[in-house]
Design brief:
Glutathione S-transferase Yfyf (Class Pi), Chain A, domain 2, 10 helices
Length: 290
């Protein structure tokens, strides 16, 4: 990179709202609400405020898996949070999640318990309903390690690779190469681990799978950043086998639709309040009604 095009950091950084690419208007260096707005609520034990990004999909898949097991106490209302419109900065949302990130969840089954950070939500639900979390202490430790591996690794995939490859206003070779290298290293970690394991924790489907799949499974299936060819994902055969196996689960197929506002209309369920919404209230049905 030449001296003319090199960025020289100032002594004190200043917020320039004109920079930042596609998400510049919703990113800011301060916390707290930007406007007053009360969150809507439904009738079910869980009130989810989210969007069908990978972090949001973790929670809707988990809730749909719980319901598929016949756990009626896991019924939920999924309210759409349009992050491109700044919904996450409303006073009501900030009250549930002071970090202004989706997903956010309220458990109103016994009082009002607020939950934020997707990994924390998965662990809370697994412990509350005693499922998708191994009973054996060694296997549980393995599960927790992979859960936190995902929470620590995905920012390199999303905020690092995804941002500079797909969203940044300029394609910067150094940044794309730096994060491509790290993402491919992560894919190799998963691929080697899955060589001798059906799921992340052996033969048991757990919250580790539910946490990792929306990011790395979606990447493998070319549903994230349109980067499958660029990263040569077909070379990770064990990871591809796992990604497709998780993708075939009925609860996963439902979970990825919830709070989705892009793609084929038949795959979009902007809000979910009843199980029948998957049949009656996808966007193709609502558009046809109009």
């Amino acid at each position: 990179m030449s001296d003319e095009s090199s960025y020289i950091p100032p002594k004190v950084w200043q917020w320039d709202t004109s920079s930042g690419g596609n998400w510049a208007k919703i990113n800011r260096p301060i916390s707290g609400p930007t406007h007053e707005k009360t969150l809507t609520t439904g009738k079910h034990p869980f009130q989810l405020y989210s969007l069908a990004t990978p972090n949001g999909v973790k929670v809707t898949v988990m809730l749909e898996e719980l319901l598929a097991m016949g756990i009626k106490e896991a019924e939920y209302d999924a309210h759409l949070i349009d992050i491109s419109n700044g919904d996450q900065f409303s006073s009501g949302f900030v009250e549930v999640n002071p970090n202004s990130k989706i997903p956010a969840l309220l458990d109103v089954s016994n009082g009002k318990t607020r939950l934020f950070e997707s990994g924390s939500i998965l662990l809370y639900l697994a412990e509350k309903f005693d499922v998708f979390l191994p009973k054996n202490i060694e296997t549980k430790a393995e599960c927790m390690s992979w859960l936190f591996w995902q929470m620590g690794s995905a920012p390199y995939l999303g905020g690092g690779f995804g941002h500079f490859y797909a969203y940044a206003p300029d394609k910067i070779e150094y940044c794309i190469n730096r994060f491509s290298m790290e993402v491919k290293r992560q894919l190799d970690v998963l691929d080697k681990h899955l060589e001798n394991n059906q799921y992340i924790c052996g033969d048991e489907y757990t919250i580790a799978d539910i946490a990792i799949w929306p990011w790395y499974g979606a990447l493998m299936l070319n549903r994230l950043y349109d980067a499958a060819e660029f990263l040569n994902v077909t070379s990770y055969k064990n990871l591809m086998r796992w990604a497709k196996e998780i993708d075939s689960r009925p609860a996963v197929k439902r979970g990825v639709m919830v709070n989705k506002t892009w793609g084929e209309l038949s795959t979009q369920l902007h809000e979910r309040h009843e199980a029948s919404d998957f049949i009656n209230k996808t966007q193709d049905k609502l558009t046809d009604d109009k």
